[in-house]
Amino acid sequence: MGQSHRELLKGSLDLLLLALLESGPLYGYQIVKELRARTEEVLQIKEGSLYPALHRLEAAGLLESYWEPREDGASRRYYRLSATGRAALPTRRAEWQRFTAAVAGVVGHG
Question: SS3 for 24?
């Protein structure tokens, strides 16, 4: 992923995480894989960015986390949208759509 993709990802990471978790709980590595798959490998996130963002969203009340035991006896932390996060997602999605339309209005007139 080029430098420009990294900077764009940083500014939209919260919305991406909320949207990824809209369909159900995921643990960290699943989030990484799902983002890569849905963006055809264009967007990739490293743990150093993922977990601080998840914790920030949880502290803001938009996500909840819980531990689930694995078959090998270890536990894995899952993240899911809270009721507040589910309610906030449509507004954040609409803001993003207005923003991208505005950018396209400028960039598309080259």
Answer: coil
Q: What are phi and psi of 103, to 5 degrees?
A: -60, -45
| Residues in a beta bridge with 69 | 75
Mean pLDDT, all residues of the chain: 90
pTM, full prediction: 0.86
Residue 93: both structure tokens together: 């999605």
CATH architecture of 3-107: Orthogonal Bundle (1.10)
Residue-level pLDDT at 10 = 64
Could you tell me the residue ranges of all domains in the chain?
Answer: 3-107
- Bridge partner list, 54: none
CA gap 106, 10 in Å, rounded: 21
Tell me the C-alpha distance between 17 and 6, whole Å. 15
Grouping H, G, I as helix, E, B as strand and the rest as coil, residue 57 is helix
Stretch 87-107: mean pLDDT: 92
